Amino acid sequence: MTLEGKAKFDAMRCDIWISGTAAIDETSGGYAAILRSHIGGVDYSKKVAGYGLDGSTVTRMTLKAVVEALKQIKHPMFVHVYTTLPQVSAGINKNLRKWAAKDFTKGRKKELLQHEDLWRELSALLEEKCISYKCHFQKESPDPQNNLRAIHTASEYAMKAKKTFFDVAIAQ
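Structure for RNase H type-1 domain-containing protein, as requested:
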């Protein structure tokens, strides 16, 4: 591949480090995504973060991080997602198309998947925003700096959620 070809390829690639965290009692949680791309010889980075209240699990917050990150992509790209959560990696790489074909239900009773709303939204965004995608399960990230940034930001937003939860509970 020539340098010009590599530059064109790199301009079509986005790396995303994601993290989600939640309180043990599932009352609050936070998520974060760090998006990185290299276009025209310039490195770009963007942080997306937020929090959720009632029903926040680590999986739900991690899925929310992917969804919110994909919403930031303006043109179809090659997307690489890095997560430390194996169920998110397996869900995206192995099960998502199968779940979509079954309308995000499982079993004979056609019960909705857990976090069906986020899996459904994720599926639509991947179709719209990605030329191709791969979710990498990482016990240790190849880029620890971005991984730690995502983890710390998710934790910071989880604390904001907990404060919001307590503020609302006290006000009532």
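The chain is about 45% helix and 30% strand.
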